[in-house]
Amino acid sequence: MKKLLVLTTGGTIASTKTAQGLAPGMTANELMTYVVPRDNVTISVENIMGKDSTNMQPEDWLIIAGRILEQQDEFDGFVVTHGTDTMGYTAAALSYLLYGIKRPVVLTGSQIPISETKSDAIRNLDDAVTFASQTHLTGVYLVFNGLVMMGTRAVKTKTKSYDAFESINYPYLASVNAGEMVSLYEPEPEEHLLKAHTSLDPNIFVVKAFPGLSVDIFDYLVENTHGVIIESFGNGGLPFQRRNLIPGIEKLIAANIPVIITTQILEEGQDINLYEVGKRVADAGGVTVGDMNTEAVVAKLMWVLDQTHDPQTITKMIQTQTAHDIGFV
């Protein structure tokens, strides 16, 4: 008999219609009336918050992680119901905050509230329970539309369709349907080179590069952030003609503020030294993150900065594979 704990946090899956539009309003117990009982699984449920995931903050990630850690010895697995808009960020954050946990932690949600016709919520919740109760894997995962994704690789790519999430730069781990799970990919065993750590420094800033981005933004960043993530073009390039962004990166590095370079392109990662526009960024001190997605980079940088502000250590930790977040492609 497997014992699971379902933690509810709000989101579309638990939303009801209000005068201001859909908003979380269903209780945890009401949500669970839609789950089909199983002979070999005992399910407990607990509501820990009721938020539209747009309002989810790093402090909320800590609450979720803390509740799981408090009860990890009492249950065989955990399911977290969550709104879809920031579920990729939460899945990544929990992957770091719960790093090394010996239980499966499965996030799921829906595009349509569970009480409405044609909702995908019942299937997603049932699939999450199936995976959490049948898998031998531990760590954090996201289950959506019958597919299981690594928590650090799940990205929302659609606003309406049932297949809203994709596993970016990493294989899907399993498919789930009607209480049955089929493994699709077995993750390679991962060396735990970094230690577990359960707090965050949220004082970071994400800059999306675009043609015309003012160099003046870097003056603000130097004075107001502990770390910067830049979503570059293509393989890691940023402009160095007209509005030259390279001195801005150098200014941040001189102030011991790490500059993490990801890419706006979802698939296939980056090769920052392939073009001059990328090599200049790397030479200025920008830290490449290969095939990581922005959601994972945001959560990991918060996690790393809470542990150290040493530039070399930050680079090493960011580029160290943690919960299979980097280095697949």
From TrEMBL:
Alphabetized Pfam families for the sequence: Asparaginase, Asparaginase_C
EC class of the enzyme, as a word: hydrolase
CDD domains to which the protein is assigned, alphabetical: L-asparaginase_I
Taxonomic lineage from the root: Bacteria, Bacillati, Bacillota, Bacilli, Lactobacillales
Organism expressing this protein natively: Weissella jogaejeotgali
Annotated positions binding substrate: S53, T84, D85
Active site per UniProt: T12 (o-isoaspartyl threonine intermediate), T12, T84
Keyword Hydrolase: yes
Alphabetically ordered keywords of this record: Hydrolase
SUPFAM superfamilies, sorted: Glutaminase/Asparaginase (SSF53774)
Family from the record: Belongs to the asparaginase 1 family.
EC annotation from Swiss-Prot or TrEMBL: 3.5.1.1
PROSITE patterns membership: ASN_GLN_ASE_1 (PS00144), ASN_GLN_ASE_2 (PS00917), ASN_GLN_ASE_3 (PS51732)
Biological process according to GO: amino acid metabolic process
GO molecular function: asparaginase activity
Catalytic reaction list: L-asparagine + H2O = L-aspartate + NH4(+)
Name used for this protein in its record: asparaginase
